[in-house]
Amino acid sequence: MTNIKVRFAPSPTGYMHIGNTRTAVFNWLLAKKLGGKFMLRIDDTDTLRSKKEYEDSLRDVLTWLGLTWDEEARQSARLDRYNQVVELLKSQGRVYACYETAEELEIMRKRLMNRGLPPIYDRSALKLTPEQISAYEAEGRRPHYRFKLNSGIIEWNDMVRGLCRYDAANLADPVIIREDGSYLYHLPSVIDDFDFGITHIIRGEDHVTNTALQVQMFEAIGGQSPEFAHLPLLTGVEGKLSKRLGSLGVRELREDGVEALAISSFLAKLGTSESIEPYYDLETLAQSLDLSKLGRSQPKFDVEELKIFNTHYVRNLPYSKIAHRVNVVEDFWNSVRGNIEKVSDIALWEHICCQNIKPEVEDVELTSCAAELLPPEPWGEETYSKWISEVKSVSGKSGKNLFHPIRMALTAEAQGPELKVLLPLIGRERAYNRLMGSEA
Fold first, then answer.
1. What was the pLDDT predicted at 237?
2. DSSP letter at 300?
3. What gap in Å lies between CA 219 and CA 214, rounded to an integer?
4. Whose CA is closest to 176, among 76, 94, 103?
C-alpha cells in the first residue's frame, strides 16, 4: 500500500485565518485517519510579502491546535531544484518565454472578452523570431515564462466534488515565472508534491482550476497526480465572503477563550451532514472524518455560533483534559463547569470560593442575622434557596435590599456566579466569617 502523506502549505504573508485553519485541520485529520504523515511546507517564494513573524505565528497556532507535523520543507531553499526542472521542461517545449507587458496582456484580454471569447492567451510568443526577441531584450524587456498545456481532456475523481473534467482548449497556459525571475504558485507546488511523495491534497475549491493545470504539470515531470479533495469555501453569515471572515484569526479566537479542540470540532463538521458535536481528542475526531458527508454548498461560518459551541464544549469538558490548566480539584470543576463560558472563568470561582477575600458588609444587621441562620453542613444546591427564604422571613428584607448585601458579603462582587452554586463551594465556615465581616 502507498505510504500516505499529506501536506499543509501556507504562505507566511499574513496571520492564519479561519479559512486556512480549516484546510490544515482537514489535512491533519485525513493523515491521522489513514495512518499517514503530515507535512508542513512553507511556501515562501513571495520574498516581498513573506515575514518571519507570520511564520512564527502559524507554527504557534498549529502547535496550539495540536496539529503537529512529521516533517517540513521550505520553498525558498529549493530554488535550484525548481530551476533544474524548468530547464528540462524548456528543452521539451513545455515551458516558453513571453515578452508581453502587463498592459499588453490586459488589452489582449479585453479584446477577447469584447468579442465574447474566453480570455485565453494566444501563444503568440511561440511565433516570435530571434530578431523580435533581440529587439524586445534591447528595449529592456525581461521575459516571463508560461507552461504549455497539451490539448485534450483533463480529469480526476475528486474526493468531494466527484468527477472533474476540463478541456485544455478552454484554459490559458499559466504563467509560472514572473519577469523578475520569481516563481508563482503552480510549478513549485507540483515539484514539491512530487519530490516529497504527497499522496492526498485537501484544499479550497478556489484551487479547482489550478488542479486542472497541475495535473498536466505532474505528467510533464514524470509524476502521478495525488488524490484531490476541494472543500467548499466558507462564507460569512451574510452569505458572502467578507473581509472580517478573511481576516478572522485563530490568535483572536484563542484570546477570546475559544478552545483549540472546539475550533477543530466545529470546522471539521461545519458544512457536513453530521451534527456539530464536541470531540475531546484529535484522534477520535480523525476517525470520524468522512469526506463523502461534505455538502457542495458553501457553509456559513458564524463566529458567534462558534463561541456558543465553545461554551457547550467547556461545560462538558472532562477534568482529565483540563487538570493541568486549572488550580482546582475535580469535584470543584465538576460542580462549576456547567456555569462557565470559558475555562478562564474558573479563576473567578476559585478566587471567591477558595481564597481569602475582604467582604463588603453593607448591612451589618442583615448579614449577622444571615450568618446565624446558616444551616449545618452538608450543603447542596437546594441549601441556598431554603436559607435565603428563612433570612427573608426573619429579617423582613426582600429584593435588592436582601440579595445585594448578602452577595457583597459572601463574594465582594456585585455580579457573578449564582449563589446557589457558590454557597456549597464556599462552605459554612467561610460563609459565616464573611457574613460577620471577617476576611476569609
1. 73
2. B
3. 9
4. 94
Bond before 375 cis per omega within 30 degrees: no
Q: What are phi and psi of 133, to 5 degrees?
A: -65, -45
Q: Could you tell me which residues come within 8 angstroms of residue 40 by beta carbon, excluding any fewer than 6 positions away?
A: 7, 8, 59, 62, 69, 71, 72, 73
Closest CA to 269 of 284, 254, 252: 284
pLDDT by residue (tens digit) across 159-174?
999 999 999 999 999 9
As a whole number, the mean pLDDT across the chain is 93
State the CB neighbour count (10 A cutoff) for residue 405: 22
Residue written as grid cell 509524476: 223
Identity of residue 7: R
52: which 3 cell numbers?
518571519
Q: How far is residue 426's CA from residue 296's CA, in Å, rounded to a whole number?
A: 53
pLDDT at 112 exceeding the cut of 80: yes
What is the C-alpha radius of gyration for the chain, rounded to an integer number of angstroms? Answer: 31
Other CB atoms within 10 Å distance of the CB of residue 106:
12
CA atoms within 13 A on the CB side of 289: 24
The span from the CA of 118 to the CA of 363, in Å, is 81
Closest CA to 346 of 357, 359, 332: 332
By C-alpha distance, which of 355, 369, 362 is closest to 427?
A: 355
Task: Please answer whether residues 305 and 311 qualify as being in contact, where contact means their C-beta atoms are separated by less than 8 angstroms.
Answer: no
The edge-to-edge listing of strands for the beta sheet with 175-177 is 95-98, 144-147, 175-177
What are the tens digits of pLDDT across the range 189-236?
999 999 999 999 999 999 999 999 999 999 999 999 999 999 999 988
Structural contact between residues 126 and 75, judged by C-beta atoms closer than 8 angstroms: no
pLDDT tens sequence across 11-70: 999 888 899 999 999 999 999 999 999 999 999 988 888 999 999 999 999 999 999 999
Backbone φ and ψ of 407, nearest 5°: -65, -45
Q: Tell me how far apart the alpha carbons of residues 330 and 129 are, in angstroms, rounded to a whole number.
A: 80
